[in-house]
Write a structure and sequence with these properties.
Its EC number is 2.6.1.-. The chain has a seven-stranded mixed beta sheet, with helices on both faces. It has 14 helices and 13 strands. By secondary structure, the chain is α/β, with parallel strands linked by helices. The radius of gyration is 24 Å and the shape is globular. Bound molecules: pyridoxal-5'-phosphate. The site of pyridoxal-5'-phosphate has 13 residues, from helix 4 and helix 5. Pyridoxal-5'-phosphate (PLP) binds next to helix 4 and helix 5.
C-alpha cells in the first residue's frame, strides 16, 4: 500500500470508529420497530374473532342475543396453557390488582410489601383498599430482594405484591416460601410477564393470586384488558364477585345475592367480549411473540457479554424469560446517560414516541420516588384516607422519597434499558450489537 492509500484507509477507519454523537457515521438510519410486542402480530385472527362478536350483536359476556363466549374461551385456554385452576378476564391490570388485594381482605391496619421498581398501579391498588405500601428493595434480578423482605416483616405485614418486572421473574420461589413461613398473602403482578415461568412453572402459580395486563405495551394486547388467576376456589369466587358488581352470577348470567359469603362491593371491571376476542387471538400467538423476543434478546446479550463496564440484569431462569427488555448497568449515572445518548445517535432508537432505548432515569413512574402521590401521600378523599386512618398510624414515619431503597436508587441512576421488538430481523440484531460494541469501545474502555 502506498503511503497515501495507507493514510486514506486510516482516516476511513477513524471515521468509522468515531461515534455518531461526535460527528461519526451512524450504524443505522432506519428506526427500530416499535417495542409494543403484540401489536405487530394483530391480523386476520383478531379481526375474525372480533367480527364474530359484532355480527352476533353480543358484546356482553353474561347474556345477550347470541353470546360468542370469547372471554370464557380465553379463560379456559389460559388455564390449559399455563396450568392455572381458575382464570378470570377483567378490564385492566390495575383493576385486577385492586380486586386481588380486596379478595385477600387487605385493608386499613395492613401493610403490603411492594418493590421500589414497579409501576404506579401497584401502589394505587394498595392505597385504594386502605392499606399502606411498604417499600422493599430489589436485587440484581430487578425484582424483590428476599433478604430485604425478610428484614422488614413486622406485626402489620399482611401481603407481598411481587412484581415480575420487565418480562422476567426474580427469586419468586424463595419469596413464596417466605410468605408461607410468615402467613403473608402473595399476589404476583405478572402484567409485564405473560408467558413467563421459572423451572417450567408459569408465573401466577407461585402465589395466592396472579394478575396480568393486556394493555398496549404488554406481551399480548387487547388495547386494554387483564386476567386474574387463583388456585383456591373460594378465593376465586370472591374475585369473580369483586370484579363484577359484588355478587356472583347464576347460570342465566344474572346477579345472585343468595350467598352471604359473597355479598361484597364490586369494581365494575368486567371484560367485554370485544376485548375477549382480541385477547383470545393474541394469547394463541403468545408463545411465538415471546419466543421471538427471548431469542433475539439472548442472541444480542450473548454477543455483548465480554464488554467491560457493561453488565446485565441477572435472570435466574433464562428459559422462562419472555424477553421484551434488555436491562443493563453502566459504571455511573453520567456514563449511563452518555452511553444511551450515543446509542441513540447510532440509530438505536424507535420511531417518534417510542421508548426503545432509554436510561432508567427516563423511566418515570417505574421507580418509587417518581410517584408524586406516594411521596406526598396523596388521597382521593378530603379526609386523607388511608394515610389518616387510625389503624394506619403505625406507618406515620415511613419514608417514600429518594433514599428509601439504596439498591433501587443506584440502579435507577446507572441503569439503562433497550426494548427488544418482537419482529427484529437478523440485520436489526446485528446493528444493535455493532452499535453497542462501537459505543462501548468509545466510552467504556
Ligand atoms: C407491573 C404492572 N402492573 C400493573 C399494570 C397495570 O396494567 P393496566 O395498564 O392494564 O391497568 C402495568 C401496566 O400498565 C404494569 O406494568
Amino acid at each position: 500500500m502506498t503511503d497515501l492509500a495507507e493514510q486514506g484507509s486510516r482516516v476511513g477507519q477513524e471515521r468509522a470508529n468515531r461515534l455518531a454523537i461526535d460527528g461519526g457515521v451512524p450504524v443505522r438510519s432506519e428506526p427500530l420497530p416499535w417495542e409494543l410486542p403484540g401489536v405487530h402480530w394483530i391480523g386476520e385472527e383478531e379481526r375474525e374473532l372480533v367480527d364474530r362478536v359484532v355480527r352476533a350483536r353480543s358484546p356482553f359476556r353474561f347474556y345477550g342475543p347470541d353470546p360468542q363466549h370469547m372471554v370464557e374461551t380465553l379463560e379456559r385456554e389460559w388455564c390449559e396453557a399455563f396450568g392455572h385452576r381458575n382464570a378470570l378476564g377483567v378490564s385492566s391490570g390495575t383493576a385486577a390488582l385492586t380486586i386481588a388485594l380486596s379478595a385477600l381482605g387487605v385493608g386499613p391496619g395492613d401493610e403490603v410489601f411492594v418493590p421500589g421498581y414497579l409501576w404506579v398501579s401497584c401502589l394505587s391498588a394498595v392505597v385504594r383498599v386502605g392499606a399502606i405500601p411498604r417499600l422493599v428493595d430489589i436485587d440484581e434480578t430487578f425484582c424483590i430482594d428476599p433478604e430485604d423482605l425478610k428484614r422488614k416483616i413486622g406485626p402489620h405485614s399482611r401481603a407481598v405484591l411481587c412484581v415480575h418486572m420487565s418480562g422476567a421473574p426474580g427469586r419468586i420461589a424463595e419469596i413464596a416460601e417466605i410468605c408461607r413461613a410468615h402467613g403473608l398473602g402473595l399476589v404476583e403482578d405478572c402484567a409485564q410477564a405473560a408467558g413467563a415461568s421459572v423451572g417450567g412453572r408459569a408465573v401466577g402459580r407461585f402465589g395466592d393470586i396472579g394478575i396480568f395486563s393486556f394493555q398496549l405495551n404488554k406481551n399480548m394486547t387487547s388495547g386494554d384488558g387483564g386476567m386474574l388467576v387463583a388456585e383456591d376456589d373460594a378465593l376465586f369466587r370472591r374475585i369473580v364477585a369483586l370484579h363484577d358488581l359484588g355478587y356472583p352470577r347464576n347460570e342465566k348470567g344474572r346477579l345472585d345475592s343468595s350467598d352471604e359469603a359473597c355479598q361484597l362491593w364490586g369494581m365494575g371491571a368486567r371484560m367485554s367480549e370485544l376485548a375477549g376476542a382480541m385477547a383470545l387471538a393474541q394469547m394463541r400467538k403468545l408463545p411465538r411473540i415471546t419466543g421471538a423476543m427471548r431469542a433475539s434478546k439472548w442472541r444480542i446479550r450473548e454477543q455483548l457479554a465480554d464488554l467491560p463496564g457493561l453488565s446485565f440484569r441477572h435472570i435466574p431462569d433464562p428459559a422462562g424469560d419472555t424477553g421484551p427488555f434488555l436491562l443493563m448497568l453502566l459504571p455511573d449515572a453520567a456514563l449511563a446517560r452518555r452511553f444511551v445518548e450515543a446509542l441513540r445517535a447510532e440509530g438505536i432508537a424507535g420511531p417518534p414516541g417510542s421508548l426503545a432505548c432509554i436510561t432508567m432515569q427516563e423511566w418515570g413512574m417505574h421507580w418509587y420516588f417518581n410517584v408524586p402521590s406516594l411521596v406526598q401521600r396523596r388521597s382521593n378523599s378530603r379526609d386523607g384516607f388511608p394515610w389518616s386512618h387510625p389503624a394506619n398510624a403505625f406507618a406515620k414515619d415511613y419514608h417514600y422519597g429518594v433514599g428509601a431503597l439504596p439498591r433501587c436508587d443506584e440502579f435507577q441512576a446507572r441503569g439503562a434499558l433497550l426494548a427488544i421488538g418482537s419482529t427484529l430481523t437478523e440485520a436489526d440484531e446485528s446493528d444493535i450489537v455493532t452499535a453497542f460494541r462501537k459505543v462501548a469501545n468509545g466510552l467504556l474502555r
